[in-house]
Amino acid sequence: MSTKTPAPKADPLDLAGIDDLLSPEEKAVRAAVRQVCDRAVDPYIAEWFESGDLPAIRELARELGTLGLLGMHLEGYGCPGMSAVDYGLACLELEASDSGIRSLVSVQGSLAMYAIRRHGSEEQKREWLPRMASGDAIGCFGLTEPDHGSDPGSMRTRARRDGGDWVLDGTKMWITNGSVAQVAVVWAGTDEGVRGFVVPTDTPGFTARAIKHKMSLRASVTSELVLESVRLPASAALPEVRGLRGPLSCLNEARYGILWGSMGAARSAFRAALAYAGERSQFGRPIGGFQLTQAKLAQMAVELTNGTLLALHLGRRKDTVGLRPEQVSLGKLNNVTKALEICRTARTILGANGISLEYPVIRHMNNLESVLTYEGTPEMHTLVIGQALTGQAAFR
């Protein structure tokens, strides 16, 4: 007689058993992030999205800092130095709640804090990183301009030397956390090439205006930064980098978080569609019993599985041998594109209810329209991959 133990019932959200590839410590990180999102984000996020505001951003930043999520993959200066996979799992759970919440964390840690940690002086690190890691100080990253997004080398923001000081003039646009930040990492053209500057936001001449009337990332603070003769000491410049490799190194860190986070948004939409298909009846039976609905659900599950496996593979690589830019582009391009498709398909399963904020689907769908194009548009990531395949740069 066979004594074989029956196989456990399949988890509809993890048909491939990806969870079996995670360590107990990684699962504990994921559970801790999910717990704080369940308590501090999910009960309020639909209201925040509808009102177009994130009123609790300072309190939320401190709570996320207490959990160790701000700069969690950085080492020293109050940062816990956790693994790339830990950070990715955190991003997935944060974006399962909302892309705006993941943006708060990734801009803080992977853009502003990473720039200071990798390219900053010892003085800059000691002054800002502990406060940013705890959430007592919020940071932003000023690269994109009104007329220059995918082509940052053409930025118009300039920094000129004046005696022993630097003087900055220019405008930055679509800056997450900008109007609530205590510090901005601002990139500007100089006679020495592109330089980064650590700018306290209370410096005279620095202003930040919140951008309103957004239909995406509504539960996120997005701002315009204006710098008018902002005078900074020589010590404000990031000393360890010149040229575009400085901001691009930071963007690669943020893109890595996005390729995980987008799978969180996809999982949330898929979960909602799967539950709805089991509850909604038409023609005398749940719509999940019809072949066309099952085809949609099956394809969504395949893409969610593929994207999550790709994220985990890239995370393991980042923790061991590191990632090349084209590998990050591969992940960001695939996962955000597929996540958006999953959300759109989920919307069709929910029908008219799919556009209601009673469900998370339309919120994730709208958010991913922004995630698709920020930190590199699909076109730019396609060309990064194309250059890696052919050896030919086709950006111009």
Automatic annotation (TrEMBL):
Residue ranges occupied by any Acyl-CoA dehydrogenase/oxidase N-terminal domain in the UniProt entry: 23-136
Domain called Acyl-CoA dehydrogenase/oxidase C-terminal: residue spans: 242-389
Pfam families: Acyl-CoA_dh_1, Acyl-CoA_dh_M, Acyl-CoA_dh_N
Cofactor(s) for this UniProt protein: FAD
Superkingdom assignment: Bacteria
Domain Acyl-CoA oxidase/dehydrogenase middle: 140-230
Sequence similarity: Belongs to the acyl-CoA dehydrogenase family.
Name the UniProt record assigns to this protein: Acyl-CoA dehydrogenase family protein
InterPro entries the UniProt entry points to: Acyl-CoA_Oxase/DH_mid-dom (IPR006091), Acyl-CoA_Oxase/DH_mid-dom_sf (IPR046373), AcylCo_DH-like_C (IPR036250), AcylCo_DH/oxidase_C (IPR009075), AcylCoA_DH/ox_N (IPR013786), AcylCoA_DH/ox_N_sf (IPR037069), AcylCoA_DH/oxidase_NM_dom_sf (IPR009100), Glutaryl-CoA_DH_mitochondrial (IPR052033)
Stretch list, region Disordered: 143-162
Keywords of the record: FAD, Flavoprotein, Oxidoreductase, Transit peptide
